[in-house]
Write a structure and sequence with these properties.
The complex is a heterodimer of chains A (381) and B (300).
Chain A lengths: L2 H22 L2 H18 L1 H14 L3 E5 L2 H12 L4 E4 L3 H5 L2 H7 L3 E4 L2 H8 L16 H9 L11 H16 L4 E4 L3 E3 L5 E5 L3 H7 L3 E7 L3 E2 L2 H15 L6 E5 L21 E7 L3 H5 L15 H4 L2 H6 L12 H12 L13 H5 L6 H15 L3
Chain B lengths: L2 H22 L7 H10 L8 E4 L3 H9 L1 H10 L3 H11 L4 H19 L17 H5 L3 H17 L4 E4 L2 H14 L5 E3 L12 E4 L3 H6 L3 H10 L3 E2 L3 H4 L16 H16 L4 E4 L2 H7 L4 E4 H4 L2
Parallel strand pairs in B: 1-2, 2-3, 4-5, 4-6, 6-7
The chains are: A alpha/beta (381), B alpha/beta (300).
Iron/sulfur cluster binds next to helix 13 and helix 15 of chain A.
Chain lengths: 381, 300
């Protein structure tokens, strides 16, 4: 199958699957509407919510940091991890945004992606094609070819199940000796300091409890007012990504703890003894103050808008390429927020499907039009 | 994507567009005799308070389609006079296209005349709406030119406009938003009452009509009421699943525009072999890859 065949199939599949999920679980639509309102509150007052979130994390016995840009974020995490460690990553777009994996590798750490798609991208030295399904453009044969490098028993005739099992075996050997687990966050609750993550593979569960240190790194846009909102966000994200119910929802509130003796909560227990939340600004705060741009911060990265975009469906990852892990309609907005790069917007054909399918009802074409305008001002007269 | 090429192309297009629009109200030199002959042939009244507004869209659709091809020629030329003479030679629609758009425009005129006897046309004095400026993101230039268009309509004492394509309708909607353009306008599709038509089609939605101007349902009702059968498939014609013909990216990347058109034509023809469109640019883009008809070719 070539890209155009894969994407046509996947797009039609996602469209119908999400429609069915919304019929079977009609409350998801209400949750999405409520979530939009709650996220708007945060955008209107981002500084306050960042502070509230950081205070909540510290109260739990965790540590919270705010990095203003990529360099600061890398330095904070680099210092926490140190050198010659084994680090397991769950899929995190922010880590791509700041070039974290390469940075840690350069500092003599062994770093492994544990999400299957992301792992395939890592071992084939590629770049994620889609925020939810990073290896969307890979066929079974291509995946087998990549995995053969770590397990010679895999060949081009191997079944998908065998490829998955080979990766699982390999990753298990890394989990047991991992010093640090690095995850992203689907949402962070300002009131409780909890990080919510949704997944199906089980790798995030392991990444967040097995290594003695858990670092969650995410953008300040992922902050929501309450724990309830955080759980809403993971449910809505999973539904609009087309996988519902999700196999796992993970909530982490500080380092592991127990209150089993005399009901006194102490840390650590079985899981990590250290929990760090690294919040990244990298253009988000500025965007929250820009009337034309701020709606983009509502994005919950469900990846649905990609499928309704004619440019993404034609160019795939070549559109925004390695400039950003965000692609498709949301990627045009997010590549601008994080890199100040207006050019991918020039290709927007204002097809408008993106705004129809977006759970957060972001007027994506309108935001992109603004970015186009910024680009047009930079074009020589 | 080739960022440097895009920057260069955008700069050239803007210069060519702005120069032509500010001097002559058209985006590139075009033969107005050809563009207006449809109206001369049926004696459409000149001017009037209610006008049919073509914005040259049906007449220029094929040129827009090949805009990227023309732009380097425009860009390498100096004064507007040279552009005009070379452009006039370059930009002449094919005979068969002229015949086709004349018939479409005349049919649309007859359809709208049923709801209002006194509909005029500005002939050579009709301005192009400026859609391309808006769609390429040249907002400052769009507003500046929009004011000129608004003034021109006022000079002609126009108080009611009937649009016939989605790009112009969308542009007037935005002129209203950005510069207070307050002359009422209605797309002709919303004025159709007793039209008749036949055939079985899959509708390729105009992105602007269906996803920006709230006409997704009403367009279907109009077509079906005329007796035309529409075949639907939610993954192809659903409001959020259907996608563009590729036209708008044509000026920057013709190859990409064609690839989108080809992909769109493939999904559409998987539903039904004959495709119906509501926009001249959709027609120009898709007709290379499938059998397409404009709504105004199947209802009368
Ligand atoms: S912009 Fe909307 S549809 Fe696209 S990824 Fe974000 S939330 Fe999902």
């Amino acid at each position: 199958m070539n890209w155009s065949q894969i994407i046509s199939l996947v797009s039609a599949g996602n469209y119908m699957e999400v429609e069915k999920i919304l019929q079977d679980y009609p409350y998801i639509v209400d949750m999405a509407d409520h979530l939009r309102e709650q996220k708007l509150k945060v955008i209107a007052n981002l500084d306050t919510y960042v502070k509230r979130t950081m205070d909540s994390v510290e109260k739990l016995g965790g540590h919270a940091y705010l990095a203003k840009d990529k360099d600061e974020a890398r330095k904070i995490i680099g210092d926490l991890v140190g050198e010659k460690k084994t680090v397991v990553f769950s899929k995190t777009n922010v880590a791509y945004e700041i070039g974290l994996r390469e940075f840690l590798q350069e500092r003599n750490n062994e770093v492994w992606e544990t999400d299957l798609g992301e792992y395939l991208v890592q071992i084939s030295r590629g770049w994620p094609t889609h925020i939810v399904a990073p290896a969307l453009d890979m066929t079974r044969e291509e995946a087998a070819k990549a995995v053969k490098k770590i397990d010679p028993s895999i060949n081009e005739n191997s079944k998908i199940e065998d490829i998955v099992a080979a990766v699982r075996k390999f990753l298990m050997s890394k989990y047991v000796k991992a010093d640090v687990g690095i995850t992203g966050a689907n949402a962070v609750a300002a009131d409780s300091g909890s990080v919510a993550l949704v997944e199906n593979e089980g790798n995030i569960r392991i990444d967040t409890v097995m290594p003695p240190m858990h670092i969650a790194v995410t953008g300040i846009d992922k902050i929501v007012p309450t724990m309830r909102d955080a759980l809403d966000e993971v449910m809505v994200q999973a539904a609009y990504a087309g996988i519902f119910p999700p196999t796992y929802i993970n909530v982490t509130s500080g380092p592991s703890s127990t209150a089993d003796i005399e009901l006194r909560r102490v840390s650590p227990a079985t899981g990590p003894k250290d929990f760090h939340l690294v919040l990244i600004d990298n253009g988000r705060l500025e965007a929250s103050k820009n009337e034309d741009l701020k709606e983009a911060l509502l994005c919950i990265k469900c990846g649905r808008c990609y499928f309704s975009c004619p440019i993404y469906r034609t160019l795939g990852k070549e559109w925004i390429s390695t400039k950003s892990p965000y692609n498709g309609p949301t990627g045009v907005m997010w590549n601008y927020i994080t890199n100040k790069d207006p050019w991918p917007a020039s290709y927007c054909v204002h097809s408008g499907g993106c705004k129809e399918v977006c759970p957060m009802k972001i007027n994506i074409p309108e935001v992109i039009k603004y970015i186009k305008f910024i680009g047009s001002k930079q074009v020589g007269k | 994507m080739d960022e440097d090429y895009v920057k260069k192309q955008e700069a050239t297009i803007r210069n060519v567009l702005v120069k032509n629009l500010m001097e002559s109200y058209v985006p590139f030199p075009l033969d107005k005799k050809i563009a207006t002959q449809w109206a001369y042939a049926i004696n459409v009244p000149r001017g009037g308070s209610t006008i049919i507004y073509t914005s040259y869209m049906y007449q220029m659709a094929n040129v827009f389609k090949s805009y990227e091809k023309y732009v380097p020629t425009f860009g390498s030329l100096g004064s507007s006079k040279i552009i005009a003479s070379i452009g006039a030679k370059l930009i002449k629609p094919k005979e068969e296209d002229i015949k086709r758009f004349n018939a479409i425009l005349q049919n649309i005129y007859r359809i709208v005349k049923r709801s209002n006897e006194n509909i005029g046309y500005l002939y050579e004095e009709e301005p192009y709406s400026g859609s391309l400026l808006y769609e390429l993101g040249f907002m400052d230039e769009f507003k500046e030119y929009g004011k000129k268009v608004f003034e021109l309509f006022k000079q002609h004492k126009v108080s009611n406009i009937i649009t016939i394509d989605p790009h112009t309708t969308n542009t007037l909607t935005n002129l209203k938003k950005y510069i207070g353009f307050d002359i009422p306008f209605t797309p002709y599709l919303n004025l159709i009452k007793e039209a008749k038509g036949t055939g079985k089609f899959v509708l390729h939605d105009s992105c602007l009509y269906s996803r920006f101007l709230g006409m997704y349902e009403s367009i279907r009702t109009t077509i079906r009421s005329a007796g035309v059968e529409l075949v639907e498939d939610p993954t192809v014609t659903g409001k959020g699943a259907g996608f563009c013909c590729g036209g708008p990216v044509g000026p920057l990347n013709d190859k990409l525009s064609n690839e989108i058109a080809k992909a769109r034509a493939e999904t559409l023809t998987s539903v039904n072999k004959d495709v119906l469109v509501a926009c001249p640019l959709c027609y120009a883009n898709l007709s290379e890859f499938c059998n397409v008809k404009d709504i105004a070719e199947v209802i009368a």
